[in-house]
């Protein structure tokens, strides 16, 4: 069984993950205003998607929605004051990952990130079909 296509997909997803992680770190360290408040939240969904794609390469049209749903779940957890209710220190790694302040604008950013993933997947599939049709 030839596993080369899956390996290429995993490597591609890992490279995208690393690039997006670097951008997110730079935004966190140097970004301000719109870039930090909104662009970082939009890009976190594709970042998580690429991470999942390193391990799960099979076609999954539901996966972008699932990853976007994780972002929305994080906002719900913040809205419900999960960290305070369960005594999780906001400065701990888990507290930072869960976040502490719910904002409906974050949900819009996560939705935009999900649309970015769907768009990228659509254009990727379209390009693959075109290449197969052309024989390249």
List keywords for this structure.
elongated; 136 residues; mainly alpha; 79% helix
Written account of the structure:
This protein is mostly helical. It has one domain. The chain has 6 helices and no strands. Helix 2 (33-55) packs across helix 3, helix 2 packs across helix 6 (104-134) and helix 3 runs antiparallel to helix 6 (104-134). The longest helix has 31 residues, at 104-134. The protein is elongated, with a radius of gyration of 17 Å. The protein starts with a helix and ends with a helix. The relative contact order is 0.12.
Topology readout:
Layout: H1 4-30, H2 33-55, H3 63-79, H4 82-85, H5 93-98, H6 104-134
Radius of gyration: 17 Å
| Beta content | under 5%
Helix/strand order, N-terminal first: HHHHHH
Amino-to-carboxy terminus distance: 22 Å
- Total domain units: 1
| DSSP E strands, number | 0
Share of helix, binned: over 70%
Helix segment tally: 6
Shape: elongated
Largest sheet: none
| Stretches with pLDDT under 50, minimum 5 residues | none
By secondary-structure content and strand pairing, the structural class works out as mainly alpha
